Amino acid sequence: MNQECSCDKCELKELFFHNVTSKEIMSLCGSRVEKNYDKGDCIIEQGTTINEFIYLKSGLVKLYVTNTDGKEQILSFAKPFDFVSLLSVFSQNTYSYSVMAIDESTTCNISIHDVKKLLQNNGPFAMGILEKMSKVSDAVINESLQIRKRNLRGRIAYVLLHFRNDIYNSDYYELPVSRKEIAEYIGMTTENVIRALTEFRKDGIIKIFGKAIEIVSYKKLVQISEHG
User: Fold this and answer.
1) Could you tell me the CATH number of the domain that includes residue 16?
2) Which of 220, 186, 184 is closest to 201 using CA atoms?
3) Domain check: are 89 and 193 in the same one?
4) Which residues form the HTH crp-type domain (predicted)?
5) How many domains, in total, are found in the chain?
6) Based on the domain organization, do 158 and 206 belong to the same domain?
7) Of 8, 96, 104, 118, which residue is least crowded by CB atoms under 10 Å?
8) Longest CA–CA separation in the chain, Å
9) How does DSSP assign 149-213, residue by residue?
10) Residue 197 pairs with which residues in a beta bridge?
11) What is the pLDDT of residues 159-199, one digit of tens each?
């Protein structure tokens, strides 16, 4: 479902288009729409043509690639105020990854043609785009490195802390993905993920209520994340 939206007081303007004039903002707003997605809806499909510059206004999404065998590898998770199209949007004509809503989500979509036109005419805006692209790429690479350098228990602890600190800001939250998806994200088997979560529960570090997690000992979880 698409919605009309106003650019006057949008956080997108404050966070990313602060180097853009009011006239340029209005030009961009002419092609701008909001799109609502239910949990499980595909926002970006790997291999499709890039036509829009996409910003996540609300919700939660996962970025992932699908290999030739049909197996998924989760690259990262994106939360509100993230630009979910930046990894491919200016480097090629098609997306090299997919984006799926893992919670009810809303995106702001702007014509890529209008954004590229603005890039050519506004140097400070172009530099801001490059800086943001670099930060997004660095974050995805660092996230992968942080996971890969840890053992199994450390990886599970890292993921639980990532959801706690970077997404929900709460010791109690519902896991937005399945055990299988966590396994894909950290490069382990589903059985290993289940076993580690069970060990954390038995050790009194977390409580498990179906898909919900309560972190009982934040300090211990940090220690495991850092030292395994």
Assistant:
1) 2.60.120.10
2) 220
3) no
4) 150-219
5) 2
6) yes
7) 8
8) 60
9) TS-HHHHHHHHHHHIIIIII-SSEEE-SS-HHHHHHHHT--HHHHHHHHHHHHHTTSEEEETTEE
10) none
11) 999 999 999 999 999 999 999 999 999 999 999 999 999 99
211's tokens: 């898909």
Tokens 């801001």, located at residue: 128
* Token pair in block for residue 175: 């896991």
Query: Which CATH number do you get for residue 172?
Result: 1.10.10.10
Angle, helix 152-162 to helix 123-148, in steps of 10 degrees:
140
Q: What is the pLDDT of residues 76-121, one digit of tens each?
A: 898 887 777 777 777 778 999 999 999 999 998 988 888 888 888 8
Residue type at 55? Y
Element (H, E) at 42: strand 42-44
Q: Are residues 101 and 154 in the same domain?
A: no
**Residue 145 within any structural domain of the chain:** no
- Residue 131 class from Cβ within 10 Å (0-12 exposed, 13-18 middle, 19+ buried)? exposed
